[in-house]
Structures are given as C-alpha cells and as structure tokens.
C-alpha cells in the first residue's frame, strides 16, 4: 500500500488530495515529499563559480584558475590519498546543489537521517556520532544504538580501515558499515554505506546528514549496490523506476521552517517504484541510456536559444542527468556558441566559464535528447545580477570543460544537466535488474498544472 512519507504538513491541500487519490489506485509506488533549503547566504557570481568548480571536479574536469586563486589549496590534504583510483565517485555537496533532500531511516530501531537524493553519484553516506567537524545542527547516526549495525570493508579501504570520497574542494572520510535502510515501506537489510567521521570544514550544516546516490554501482566508492538497485534486484519494485518533480521557489507552497538561519521549504516529490500521474501530463518520452551504466547518460540532440539552433561543435554530446547539480555545464565551443546567439552577452570578468547577458533579455531556450524540444524557463536561466546594481545577469549554462578535451569513447559526459533544466520537466529514471539484459532509460514529461507546468 502506498504511504505518504514524512513532512506532509509542507504540502498544500490540493497536492495532498491528488497524492491520496493516487494511493487508492496504485499499490506499489511510494510518493516521498522532498524539502529544499533556501540558504540565507548571498548567491553572487562567486557562489556559482564555486559550485561550477565542484561540478567540474565531480566529472573529472580541471578547476578554473580563478577558483584556485580565490580559495588556494584545499583542506582535503588531511584526508591523504584516495584508497584506490578505480571505482571512486567524486561527489559534490554544497548548499545549493544539495538543496533537495528527503528522510530515510537507518538502523534498528531506525534513526531518521535527511539525505540528498543525487542521481549523479552512487554511494550512500551519513555522518556518524564521532564526526569531527559537524556543527551542532547536523543529525548524527549512532551505531551503538542499532542492533543490526555491522562494520564492513572493501578493496577501497585503506590500511586503517578508512574509505575516502574526494571531490573538488574537500572530502568525506569514514568507515564502511552495513545496516538496515528504509524508505518507509521499502527496506534493504545489510545496505553498505559510509559512516563519515571526518569531512571538509563547512561541508554540512543544518538538517542534512549526507547523500543517497541514485546512479549505478560501477562508480560507487564503497563498491556496494546502491539502495535503489538493491530494491530492483530483489523484485521489491513492481516498476523499476524513480521519478522526480523538483519544485522551483515560485512553486513552493505550504509551511516553512527555519534551521540555523536558513529556511526549509517544500521542494517537490520523489516517487520510488513508478511515477505520479498528478504531476505530469501527456506521455513520458523515454530514451535509452548510453554506454555501460555509470551515470544516467543521454545524448543531447539539440540546443536552441532565441529560436536559433546552437552548433554543438565536434565534441561528444554525452550528457549526465544529475539531480544533485544546480547548473547546466557543457563543452567550451558549444557554450560559446550558445551565448553568441544572445545579443549583448559577454564573458564574466574574473570568473572563467561564465557568461552574462542583459537582465532585460528573456531567454527562450530548449534542449532535446530525443524528438521533443523541452523549454527551459527564462527565470531558471537567469541566476541574478552579476553584481549589485548591474544591468547584466549571470547565465545558467556555463563552460564545463574550459577547453580541455574529453577522449572519445571515454564514457565521461561532456554535458552535465542539472536542476536549471530538471525543474522544467517531470523526470523518470528507469532501471533494470542486474540479471537483466535490458537497457536503463531516462524519461521526460511535461509538468502538470499542479506541478507548475
């Protein structure tokens, strides 16, 4: 039986009625409200430039020179070298990219942990009670209070039993463990996860305790089967799908709470085991993923702006569909061609890879991965003024590669497509059991009026 998971008070009456109607006719999907955090810190060009460098690091691109000058050496040196160069998922985690989260239960009895739902990584990690740099607001998992907790290990563990997950400006380190993990009605016993005891200063604050990676096992640092894949392999999902409606600020309704100076607001709905028909209209356009399962990868077919087709250049158009990333990043030539079609656009001085355009200009942008050209709201493409009082605004598409080349057939994406696009569509990730010969797929559908479409 479908059950609505946590934080129901954050949804409007209309949304609850629609979801309750689904519950009566659909026995298997679990519809999980997700929250997002509205950070009180200013989001200026430096904020987004730092976020872009975290995305670059996550996907193996060099950081911008402006970021290295601004931040200097990372404090991740204390974590030492990676345990292994193979199978390491380089994660990104920051206030904006990690704004959509839900609550899982870990242990026996269960301890509630808020985790980011990230289709751009594959590991589950949460902060443990011995965490050295967690602030007082971060909920910590206490393994001594769980009767089902077991220590674990993998080939990625170092001699002292530590596993490290590194990313652009820091790292997460801890010990591998196994315990019962539950999303209300769906449970995996003996799920492997990283119990973090050391992380980069300032990485976490407030209610979020970690990340639940929703990509494929091949990129998992812990070398473990991701939670969603374990459910599919066990036949626990009648439909092997995960679906997202990611709400933008203008869609937010219902109550809000304030934690550590930041505001938590309703952020949309995550459905495990199917889709929520109240949140989209028409058919879902499913597209097979490309290559060996790692990230959720599609080929970008076309990009338009101001009704003009943008030349995507000679680079691969392999695109990672990533709910854990805010922006859209692409290869240098394609991004330059995109802004070259916008009158008055220019590069942002001091911030490599970013472009501005006149704030008075409304951008008409579409992306296609198959036969449908999906529009992106001009509000999502406009990240705000480049500086206070400026008449120029920052664009939501940035230069991911900064001129570096992606080797052909490397399997690495040239594009990373995050929430700037995903807030405009209903997105479905369809998996297959490990024993199946089927191909995973990603689907997009038009948002319903309920979801702001």
Structure overview:
Pfam families: Asp (PF00026). Keywords: Aspartyl protease, Hydrolase, Protease, Signal. The protein is 13% helix and 34% strand. It contains 7 helices and 28 strands. It has a 6-stranded mixed barrel. A 5-stranded mixed β-sheet has the order 14-17-26-18-25. Strands 16-15-21-22 form a 4-stranded antiparallel β-sheet. Strand 21 (365-368) and strand 22 (373-376) form a beta hairpin. It is globular. The model is unreliable at 1-27, 68-98 and 251-261 (pLDDT under 50).
* Major sheet: arrangement of strands: 2-3-9-4-8-7
Q: How would a crystallographer describe the biggest sheet?
A: 6 strands, mixed, barrel
> What level of helicity do the residues show?
10-25%
Q: In angstroms, what separates the terminal alpha carbons?
A: 28 Å
The averaged pLDDT comes out at 81
What would you call the shape?
globular
- Poorly predicted runs of 5 or more residues: 1-27, 68-98, 251-261
SSE-based structural type? mainly beta
Strands, count: 28
Proportion of residues in β-strands: 25-35%
Give the count of helical stretches.
Answer: 7
Integer-rounded radius of gyration: 21 Å
Domain Peptidase A1: 100-445
InterPro entries: Aspartic_peptidase_A1, Aspartic_peptidase_AS, Pepsin-like_dom, PEPTIDASE_A1, Peptidase_aspartic_dom_sf
Protein name: Aspartic peptidase domain-containing protein
GO molecular function, one term: aspartic-type endopeptidase activity
Topology:
Blueprint: H1 13-25, E1 30-38, H2 45-58, H3 65-71, E2 100-106, E3 111-118, E4 124-127, E5 150-151, E6 162-167, E7 170-183, E8 186-199, E9 208-213, H4 227-233, E10 241-246, E11 257-259, E12 262-272, E13 280-288, E14 297-299, E15 302-305, E16 308-309, E17 318-321, E18 328-330, H5 332-340, E19 346-347, E20 355-358, E21 365-368, E22 373-376, H6 378-381, E23 382-385, E24 392-395, E25 397-399, E26 415-417, H7 419-422, E27 426-430, E28 441-447
Parallel strand pairs: 3-9, 4-8, 17-26, 18-25
Antiparallel strand pairs: 1-2, 1-12, 2-3, 2-7, 4-9, 5-7, 6-7, 7-8, 10-12, 10-27, 11-12, 13-28, 14-17, 15-16, 15-21, 18-26, 19-20, 20-24, 21-22, 23-24, 27-28
């Amino acid at each position: 039986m479908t059950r609505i998971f946590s934080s129901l008070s954050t949804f409007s009456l209309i949304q609850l009625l629609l979801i309750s109607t689904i519950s009566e006719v659909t026995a298997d999907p679990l519809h999980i409200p997700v929250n997002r955090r509205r950070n009180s810190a200013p989001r200026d060009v430096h904020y987004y430039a730092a976020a872009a460098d975290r995305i670059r690091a996550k996907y193996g691109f060099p950081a911008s020179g402006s970021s290295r000058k601004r931040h200097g050496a990372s404090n991740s040196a204390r974590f030492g070298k990676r345990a292994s160069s193979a199978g390491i998922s380089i994660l990104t985690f920051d206030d904006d990219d990690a704004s959509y989260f839900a609550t899982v239960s870990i242990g026996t009895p269960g301890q509630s942990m808020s985790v980011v739902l990230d289709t751009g990584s594959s590991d589950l990690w949460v902060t443990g009670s011995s965490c050295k740099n967690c602030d007082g607001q971060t909920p910590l998992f206490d393994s001594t209070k769980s009767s089902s907790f077991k220590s674990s290990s993998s080939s990625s563990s170092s001699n002292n039993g530590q596993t490290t997950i590194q990313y652009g400006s820091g790292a997460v380190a801890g010990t591998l463990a196994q315990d019962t993990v539950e999303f209300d009605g769906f449970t995996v016993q003996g799920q492997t996860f990283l119990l973090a005891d050391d992380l980069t200063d300032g990485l976490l604050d407030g209610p979020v305790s970690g990340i639940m990676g929703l990509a494929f096992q091949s990129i998992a640092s812990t070398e473990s089967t991701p939670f969603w894949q374990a459910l599919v392999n066990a036949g626990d999902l009648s439909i092997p799908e995960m679906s997202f409606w990611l709400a933008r600020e203008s869609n937010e309704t219902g109550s809000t709470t304030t934690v550590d100076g930041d505001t938590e607001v309703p952020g949309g709905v995550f459905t495990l085991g199917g889709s929520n028909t109240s949140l989209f209209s028409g058919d879902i356009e499913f597209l097979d993923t490309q290559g060996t399962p790692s990230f959720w990868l599609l080929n970008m077919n076309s990009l338009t702006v101001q009704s003009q087709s943008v030349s995507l250049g000679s680079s691969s158009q392999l695109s990672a569909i990533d709910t854990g990333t805010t922006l859209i990043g692409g290869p240098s030539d394609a991004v330059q061609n995109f802004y070259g079609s916008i009158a008055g656009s220019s590069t942002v001085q001091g911030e490599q890879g970013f472009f501005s355009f006149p704030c008075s200009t409304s951008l008409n942008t579409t992306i296609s991965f198959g036969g449908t050209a999906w529009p992106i709201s001009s509000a999502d493409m406009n990240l705000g003024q480049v500086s206070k009082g400026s008449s120029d605004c920052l664009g939501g598409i940035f230069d991911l590669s900064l001129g570096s080349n992606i080797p052909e057939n490397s399997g690495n994406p040239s594009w990373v497509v995050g929430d700037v696009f995903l807030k405009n569509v209903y997105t479905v990730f369809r998996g297959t059991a490990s024993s199946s010969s089927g191909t995973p797929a990603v689907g997009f559908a038009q948002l319903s009026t309920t979801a702001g479409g």
